[in-house]
Predict the structure.
Amino acid sequence: MASENAQILPNVKRIFLVLSGKGGVGKSTVSTQLALTLQNCGFKVGLLDIDLCGPSIPRMLGLENSSVHQCAQGWVPVYTTPDQTLGVMSVGFLLANKDDPVVWRGPKKTAMIKQFLTDVYWQDLDYLIIDTPPGTSDEHISVMENLKSVRCDGAILVTTPQAVAVGDVRRELTFCRKTGLKVTGILENMCGYVCPHCSECTNIFSYGGGESLAEMGKVPFLGRIPIDPKLTKAMECGENFITSFNESVAAQTFISIVKNFIIQQEENIDVSENQ
Ligand SMILES: Nc1ncnc2c1ncn2[C@@H]1O[C@H](COP(=O)(O)OP(=O)(O)OP(=O)(O)O)[C@@H](O)[C@H]1O
């Protein structure tokens, strides 16, 4: 058992999972922006998309026409830039026709996820961000079980502010507790709409559900990202939102999450390791 675990992601320093109880709350958007932010901070980053039925990461990074190649050590990730500081792996790169649906039963999905965790040749990553499927299905349980065995550093739970989405995250929180997965914190996405003309923020949905849940669950509240049409557009055309719109509230919130909750965690660990 231990030797099997030792082979999983051996060149990766830190692993963070992005989870949501519900589909469509912006999990892939958050995974992508956190990866880009970490890259901008000078780290070597991997982004692993294990949302097998809805692999949207390749499109969000403008990589939809890319394919992975095989080398002696396994699959070589697709890199976003020639300096190879952000590598991406997704089932979307393996489909012969990009519009093909993935219609696999549970065991095949579980095997594919295991393969993604063992057969991708990541070269000395500082961070691996893993975008997971929504929910807590059988498939999801096996994903988390696999990751738990490879010292996952934290789970970032994404919700929208409405009660129904927050309720789903509450279940995800319980699930993390039961599987021993450390929760980095809860992030509220699509929280209010910032008017591009006057910058006033209007709360279209309800407000603060994720923050209350974080308080109740005694886990950090990471922040809230407003609905930003520039972010939607950047995701659609594969533009780097963090560099193009660095001053926006959304980009600044991603930067603050990375600095205060992800890098900070590493600094804390380094401090205690040096004591
Ligand atoms: N804060 C935001 N501002 C504007 N658009 C957003 C924001 N967050 C997400 N979106 C848009 O909402 C849509 C859904 O987001 P995304 O695909 O990230 O959700 P998801 O939770 O990963 O969905 P799925 O469950 O299908 O994997 C995308 O078009 C994305 O660009």
Remarks:
- DSSP finds ten helices and eleven strands in the chain.
